[in-house]
What we know:
Keywords: Membrane, Transmembrane, Transmembrane helix. It comes from Microbacterium schleiferi. The chain crosses the membrane at residues 12-31, 37-55, 92-112, 118-141. The chain is an all-alpha fold. Helices cover 67% and strands 0% of the residues. The model has no long low-confidence stretch (mean pLDDT 91).
Amino acid sequence: MPDKARGIDPRGPRFAAAITSVLLLIDVFLGLTGASVAAFVLLVAIALLFLWGVVSPRTAPWGALYRAVIQPRLAPPSELEDPRPPRFAQGVGLFVTAIGILLFAVGVPWGVPAAAAAAFVAAFLNAVFGLCLGCQLYLVLQRAGILGRRPASAA
Length: 155
């Protein structure tokens, strides 16, 4: 990370993932019990939250809630993390939920619960075990030179 002072508390994204995983689990349940329109609407709301997390992570609701209510009650984090991988992970969540929305829009009824289930697995792993699949994908793409690093300029 170029500037360690700009790191984020790693507990914030895990808190957001916990709330997101609950919403996604509700969405899977709605999709599997026949409430497909309600599941679709909830998935659109979740996708908008992912979009918010990509566009403006400082103002995203779950992060703001964490910083205002939870973080002041905790000891400072032992280390900070680079904000780019969690932000990329929000983009991955947006992509997965957008696929579910698109599938529903073209008439695939299982698109919403399938996309919500896939996103739930990722959010749950992050919330419970601290394993951020989107962050891991970011690191793989960074090592491959696809993301996060600019090629050295010729002098």
